[in-house]
Structure prediction request, 101 residues.
Amino acid sequence: MKTWSSLVCALALLLAGCGEGAKLVQDTGDGGVMTYPFKGEQGWMLSSFRQEALAFMKEKCGGSYTIVREGEAKGRVRLAGLEGAQEIVQERRWGIQFQCK
Prediction:
């Protein structure tokens, strides 16, 4: 039974780690700000969510956009797991401010 409960806890932590992906946090009509999560050891540039953010910007702008600036955005801290086996997870986010051409 202990192995089963360990497996359930591991699965819950894995699923809890799958937070939201890229999202538009500010829409200016002709641009905006996208944010996406990244892991510190992986880095912001290699995050799979970066491609999702760039694809959204391309679609919103009809193909052509300029990145005005980018940098680390405010992330979040949350509890993940089941009662008795909770873990504090710090989610880092990267922000991209863009302008349609």
About this structure: The beta strands are 23-27, 31-38, 65-80, 87-100.
